[in-house]
Fold:
Amino acid sequence: MAPLRVEVAASRTASSVRGRLAEDLRRLCGDAGVSQDALSRAADVPQGFISRILAGNARPSIETYAKLASAIGADLSARLYPNTGPTIRDRHQARILEGLLRQLHPRWQVFTEVAVRNPARGWIDAALHEDRERKLVATEVQSDLRRLEQLLRWSREKADALPSWAGWSRLGEEPDVSMLLVVRRTRATQQLAREFGRQLRVAYPAHPDDAVSALTGVVPWPGSALVWARIDADRVRLLSGR
Structure:
């Protein structure tokens, strides 16, 4: 079964696309002076079904829309656009996130699976809010560092979009947003981190030790940071050092 957030996002997107297509169909028929009855005969689609489509009460297939488009001399197009990364997570990411949340100091208020919509659309693994310092930390968990440039761009775009999150208004005074990237330490991820160390330090300049101290204790949050994590049997450890 798909995760709830995938179901919700899919339902919202499908409803929006159907609404836009119905409006396009209504406008093009009006511009061409084509009645529902005439469209039905030309496209071989029942007139009653067309009426339900235009009223937003039907879920026509792509084939049906292709018939309708052809009948009024229109082109039907469907594309998938890259956004801010997949919602699919592997077993390591889930364990690391759970381990991180268990180690957080109580001063941190945790929001998981945070949906942002503008200017970027996507999901942030967790947002950590510290009310006294007015900090909100957009937290992403990764078990590898492939497609690093894309990862860095998506993380920044989603963090910048946090004001569009439905829970933003409940935080009170506007917080200062920064980022946390928690990465599973393996030979492969360490090698990539060495190769692209300059990019990572620009995006996450704070020292990992300071970040871990702030997450697990009461010292001030140092700013955007990359923290390494290791999975040892049933335990997740946040590691010191770059």
